[in-house]
Amino acid sequence: MKTSVISLGAGAVCFLALQVFAGDSAFPSGASGSPVPPKVRVLVAEDEKFFRLSVQGAYVIQSLPSLQALKKGSGLENVPLTVTKKGLKLGDAEWPVSRLRIETKGKRDLVLNHTRFRGEVEIVRANEHSLAAVNHVDLEDYLYGVLPHEVAFWWPMEALKAQAIAARTYALYQMRVNHRNLFDLKSSTSSQVYKGTRRERHRTNRAVDETRGRVLTYEGKIFPAYFHATCAGITTGAQELWKMEISPLGGGVRCGYCRISPHYYWKAAVPLSEIEEKLKLYRVPLGRILRIEPVSQTPSGRVGSLRFVGTLREDVIAAKDFRIWVGGNRIRSTAFTVKVREDAAQIDGKGWGHGVGLCQWGALGQALAGRAHEDILRFYYPGAEIRDES
Ligand SMILES: [Zn+2]
After folding, report:
1. Taken in order 7, 12, 18, 24, is the CA torsion positive or negative?
2. What's the confidence (pLDDT) of residue 283?
3. Cα of 220 to ligand 1 centre, how many Å?
4. Where is 55: in which H helix or E strand?
């Protein structure tokens, strides 16, 4: 299976290639004998000039990868953490380091730019103008912070559990393929949305707890269990988008359950002047656009490529690229028709997201119809098994 095309980490700066030494904790761990849960590393901020850091209670700041203690103390209140020519600066203290780790004793004691995080935060100096932050957090705690952003906390428990297992599987897969990089996942829709503890809810936490350690496998292996908002009738095969052939992500699952989705149908009007600018930027200038027409279809019936006919020349472009250029929240899927009317491309579409794997609104429809989360997962990931990893 080839996975190098997955966009995780795309656009991140050169420090990505650094090997990370997953370090020992600066605080002694409990002697309970229970297995240590895996930690996931989530890029929670990038291209920042400074952070504001607050800590309640005891903390330790270490340089990385040496683990040399730079500062120990108790309590910080909105202290600026900035990048300098030589290194990093917290309040008045400056250190010639490019990476440091802030560790606290409690589980929710660290606040970075008004967002509260469990676990530890690593600060990375990308260059003399730019900082990034990576939250190292227990996988199950991370899922508490993902679920309420990916689904509504009031959805039926079976839909929430299906989402928890899919999100856990996806995260574990990314942890395995990215273990030599500086982070495993981004905190946006390019991975899974995560914003620390900000929107944690009792019901979504319960869905995580009640499925603790449960993952999807195919032929005994974890796979990237993609999901999306609404497939609008049929799921996409991963191979339609990426160089990835894996049976549970093969697409073609007919889903009538997401008809309840508010994203089932959508419309967008994109000014031709904007499209002309994008073509100039990413391809070649076509002049004034006269027509836009689909030239190929994917096996799941979505638009494969589009021909743009301009006054100077014409060009054929993959619909998935066109969607990215204009923005995935405006062109919500590649299941659409398009007509040039006056000075805009009028687009009528169906569904939201890439369409691969679990359809979130379809999972809701199935849960409302009384189906269990195991059945929902087997429906969207045909051939997959549910296994206990803990
Ligand atoms: Zn669906």
Report:
1. negative
2. 86
3. 26
4. strand 50-63
